[in-house]
Amino acid sequence: MTSTAASEGREQPSLRDFFASRFVQAILLSGLFLQIGIWVRNFAILFYVTDLTGNDPNAVSLISVAEFLPIFLFSFIGGTFADRWRPKRTMVWCDLLSAVSVLLVLLTLLFGTWKAVFFATLVSSILSQFSQPSGMRLFKQHVHESQLQLGMSVYQTMMAVFMILGPSLGTLVYYNLGIDWAMGIMCGCFVLSAVTLMFLPPDRAEDRREQTHIAREMALGFKYVLSRRLLTMLGVNFAVAGLAIGLIMPMSIFLVTEHLGLDKSHLQWFTGINGAAMIVGGGLAMAFSKKASPQSMLAAGMAVSVVAIAAIGTTSSVAVALVAQFISGLVMPAIQIAINTLILQNTEDAFVGRVNGILNPLFMGAMVLTMSVAGLLKDAFSLSAIYLVSSGLFVLGVLVMLPMLRVKK
Question: Is residue 306 a contact partner of residue 391, using CB atoms and an 8 Å limit?
Fold first, then answer.
């Protein structure tokens, strides 16, 4: 019996109990520090690379590849080890090692080559493949099943707030303090996150269970996913969505500068309005989650994304592009909350890391594939054509979702 299943026999906790939880407080504070560091990193490195390369689309695409390729290569390995190791200790060490890697990059920037900035993104992305599934395991252990969707919504709302504040913060740090200070702030944020995670409840006894051979545990993970129809179909949907998102993710700065004729600093407003929409969408998703299944929320969110992405890529009006961006952000929480809820509700605690490690590479691998050729496609085709192809792939994703609507937990 999993810890979550065992908790079903106890009285369901209140909203006050949820926010008074030592685990919830620590994990949210850790997330706060990580969000500050990540957004400073993302925008500082983006502007730094574009300044040095003259807006080279291939260099911009390389930033995204450095961030997402490790998710494809290390997600399953990280998820498997996350199921073996003690989750709290794993998360603390991952944040500390990330801080050390950023410090090394900072020293390289001071005395070596600017290309070291890619290494900072690469290392922190690799370590997150061990930390993230460990966090999911702790979430399933310490949060009552009736409040899993609430927890997902709260965390997504915090991320949405930083989609408003983060771009401005990253832009402010880079243009006023420079890349060296940006890397220093990122290092400090990882250290603060690690210190905060030390206040999590101790790892449970079952997290020290006897372990079998790593190859056998990997094989059991694949068998587990294939034996559950909903998880299998979710994996197919992940791959299709990854292809679609990978096409347009590196193109956002070119959408702003070339398609709409704005300065690159205006990118923060598009990201900001997307974050504002996600805050509103998070509240709507929480309200509709009581009446709609996670499967239907996911299908509806992807269907709306079809129209929004097509509009963003084809309009030459800044106002229309902003409205479409808002609509796209409005449904994003429903998609993310539905995915995380489906995984946690349909996965036993002992397999959470491996299920994440199998599904995420399907999404990220497909996304990295199209990211890798995005720069070449940008040279060969118009931005509108790229966005329309992405929209068409989302249509395929919705079609894949339809059989899932009839699958129950």
Answer: yes
Reported pTM: 0.69
Which among 404, 406, 388 is positioned nearest to 235, based on CA atoms?
Answer: 404
CA gap 390, 384 in Å, rounded: 10
Q: Do the Cβ atoms of 334 and 160 come closer than 8 Å?
A: no
- Selection from 123, 194, 189, 146 nearest residue 4 by Cα: 146
Q: Which helix (H) or strand (E) holds 389?
A: helix 383-401
* Residue 211 near residue 335, CB atoms below 8 Å: no
Task: Give me the helices (H) in 249-316, please.
Answer: 252-254, 267-288, 294-314
Sequence-distant (≥ 6) Cβ neighbours of residue 75 within 8 angstroms: 129, 356, 357, 358, 360, 361, 364
Q: Using an 8 Å Cβ cutoff, are 271 and 320 in contact?
A: no
Contacts 24+ apart (CB under 8 A), 28-33: 28/154, 28/155, 28/158, 29/196, 30/91, 30/95, 30/193, 30/196, 30/197, 31/155, 31/158, 31/159, 31/193, 32/158, 33/189, 33/190, 33/192, 33/193, 33/196
Q: Alpha helices, DSSP H only, in 54-116?
A: 57-84, 87-111
Domains of the chain: residue spans and CATH: 18-200+211-406 (1.20.1250.20)
With contact defined as beta carbons under 8 Å apart, do 34 and 189 qualify? yes
> For residue 196, which phi and psi values (nearest 5 degrees)?
-65, -40
* Mean pLDDT, range 8-27, rounded to an integer: 73
Give the C-alpha distances (Å, rounded to integers) separating 106 from 102, 120, 174, 183, 397: 6, 9, 14, 6, 41
Reduced to 3 states (helix: H, G, I; strand: E, B; else coil), residue 86 is: coil
pLDDT tens digits, 59-118: 777 777 777 777 767 877 888 887 788 888 888 999 999 888 888 887 877 776 777 777
Token pair belonging to 213? 């051979």
What's the maximum distance between 2 C-alpha atoms anywhere in the chain?
Answer: 61
| pLDDT tens figures, 199-243 | 888 877 654 555 567 778 778 888 888 888 888 888 888 888 889
Which residue shows structure tokens 């106890």? 10
User: How many Cα neighbours within 13 Å face the side chain of 370?
Assistant: 23
By CB neighbour count within 10 A (0-12 exposed, 13-18 middle, 19+ buried), where does 111 fall? exposed
Q: In the chain, what is the straight-line distance between the N-terminal and C-terminal CA atoms, in Å?
A: 17
